[in-house]
Amino acid sequence: MTQRALPAVGSPMAAAVATGVTLTVLAVATPFLRLAYDNPSLHVALETAEGLIGALVAYLAAQRFRVSGSRRELVLAWTFSLLAVTNLALSAVPLVTSGARPGGDLPWIVMGLRLSGAAGLLVAAWADPAATTTWERARRPLAGVTAGVVVAVTVGAAAAGAWLAEAVELPLDAGATGRPRLVGHPVVLAVQIVAMALFAAAALRFAGRSGGDDGLVRWLAAGCALAAFARLDYALYPSLYTSWVYTGDVLRFGSYLCFLAGAALEIDAYRRGQTRLAVLEERRRIARDLHDGLVQDLSFIRSQTAAMAEGAEIPEMAAHVAAAADRAVQESRRALDALTGVAPGPLVDTLRVAATEVADRTGAAVRVTAEGMVPPLAADVVRELSLVVREATSNAVGHGKASTVHLRVLLKAGRLRLVVADDGTGFDTAARGSGFGLRSMRERAEALGGRFAVRSEPGSGTEVEVSIPLR
Q1: Which residue did the predictor score with more confidence, 158 or 25?
Q2: pTM
Q3: Could you please report the per-residue DSSP string of 57-109?
Q4: What are the angstrom distances between the C-alpha of 159 and each of 56, 104, 146, 313?
Q5: What pLDDT does residue 167 have?
Q6: What residues contact 66, with CB distance under 8 A and at least 6 apart?
Q7: Rounded mean pLDDT of 151-168?
Q8: Which of 9, 151, 201, 357 is most buried as measured by Cβ atoms within 10 A of its Cβ?
Q9: What confidence tens digit (pLDDT) does each residue in 203-221 have?
Q10: What is the largest CA-CA distance in the chain?
Q11: Do 448 and 381 contact (CB within 8 A), yes or no?
């Protein structure tokens, strides 16, 4: 338990602590070194970069919340959104438009919002990652918290501006010495110390929860650690609301670089996850293709050859077996065409061939009706629809003993409807459940962005419908 609570040697947290201690000691103990510079443009660059990084982390946290529903990710998204707005809208923009560090109430507003951001990180650090919620349930409380923070900070800033005067009144030669200069207002110094404590507590909590492969949490711990040292330096050298760039600004920018490193790891983890998902989806597609294509023909060949081995004399049995073998070969060639991107023929003709090849096994008739001019479709779309038709026809003539299969292709209002109806025995859709064939047809339709439906009653035949949008 103790080992989990302490950062491991060589971890981002340990490196952040070492960096923070080193820069703070250098700033305090080496007055002969010039570590501060009067550079408003550099302040703009740092705060703009920090605002953009905060927006990126907020977006990634929001995406994590969409996937997991974790309350911690929701709090992180809110916190970094608040920090991003504070850095961009309330710090960088006023400096660019006025050409000088903003005064009056604005520094107090910025300070209050940044303190709220530190509190938000601490709440996120202590939040249970397993606790989940939905956006519909969380948006009203979140809106209330946001409104409360904005009102409280605005009222507090107005009071501070009226009663406490300027947040920091710093001489122009403030960076000429490395000695601490506690020239900020006592309230400012107190806020910096409180923020330091919040960031430090969040860093320790994130470090204790940084096990596993969650790189974002590990770098959040490191970033909060650097942010804590930045607040200490701001208390010693209040450059945050002046034109001077000091070690506190460097440490704060380092904290955002840590957040950016965590975001980069999150993006890489997402990319690797998508790759694994694509592999799994490809395996499922191959399984569907084998089931709906080759397996159907091979099953038919096996049943017919077994009957022939038992001495059954069915007219034209050998011809049916040969035709099934030909279809298996054709299906293999179609699969190769799909993999190599060879364009298929017209949709209706392709679907007619797919249905006829299966219906011929039992001598069932196939009727085709087309309404509307179907535009050329991508090879993978035609292939998926043809496999749906093959599976639906196979179920109709195999399980339903249908004598006629009616294939309808309808184009209306930008959607393509594909209906396979039969006059077979039908079945109870509630009692049968979802076999692999029905499930594979549904997955193919949904993979194309469409809808799947099956309607059937015992003795009344079956109707399978796929509806997809045309893009």
Answers
A1: 25
A2: 0.60
A3: HHHHHHHHHHHH-BHHHHHHHHHHHHHHHHHIIIIIHHHHHHSS---TTHHHH
A4: 33, 11, 20, 101
A5: 55
A6: none
A7: 69
A8: 357
A9: 999 988 765 556 788 899 9
A10: 108
A11: yes
